[in-house]
Each structure stands twice: as C-alpha cells, then as structure tokens.
Amino acid sequence: MFIFSIIGLSLFGDSCPRHFGTLGKSMFSLFVCVTQDGWMGITEELQQCGYFEVGAVYLVIFITIGAFVFANLVVAVVVTNLEWAIAEQKGGDQKHQKSADSEKIRTVDAHQALMRLARQQTPLQVPQLSLDTRCLE
Fold this sequence. Notes:
Elements: H1 2-12, H2 17-20, H3 23-35, H4 39-48, H5 52-102, H6 110-120
Helix pairs in contact: 1-3, 3-5, 4-5
C-alpha cells in the first residue's frame, strides 16, 4: 500500500490533490479502494483530471492485489480464531471426559442383581406368638 501510495503521489499528486496530494491522502484513498467502498468517486476524479486510462489501470491493479491480500488476511484471522476455539473446545472436552471416566457408575443387569440379593437374604422367620386369653376377657 505504501509503494502504491508513492506511485499515486508521483503520478496524480499535482493534478488530483484531493485524493493524491500528500502521502497521507494517497494512502487513505487507496484504503478506500481496498475496502471497495468509494473507489468510483476516485475513478471519476481521475477521469476529470485527464488520467482515465492510467488511473483505471493503476486502480484496477491495486484493487486486485489489495483485495486478495485484504481478503486473505481476513480469512487467515477467522481461520486462526476458529482453530483456537476448536482446540480449546477439544481441550475442555478431554478434561470433561477424564472426569466423567473417573466418576463412571458401574451398571449391573437387573436380573443378576435380584438373584444375588435373593441368595444373600435370610428366610423370613415368623415368631411363635402365644395367645394369652386373659387379655381377651
């Protein structure tokens, strides 16, 4: 962007000072072109200054290169953040999996549990009650 700003300053600085008068204005104009927001206004002003063909080639080359770099930069940031989030999620899942494994409850078949309980149980003993007839009278 800096190199294209210097080229724009030397090519169009005297004729189009509004967009290419200083290095700062030139860089800002090129930033507007990279974002593809107001590049038509810059193109129209270059056309009014008499630099339609040269200005069009200059801006097309810069927008093409700048859009690829800018798009790749945005994609790289998004992909990097996505990779960090996935790694963090997997790290959290592994920690959760380890704690879940240590707290795992052993399950048993219900029929086997009832059979084991029946073998361990002592039979019910009914006590012998004597009937006292004095209380009834």
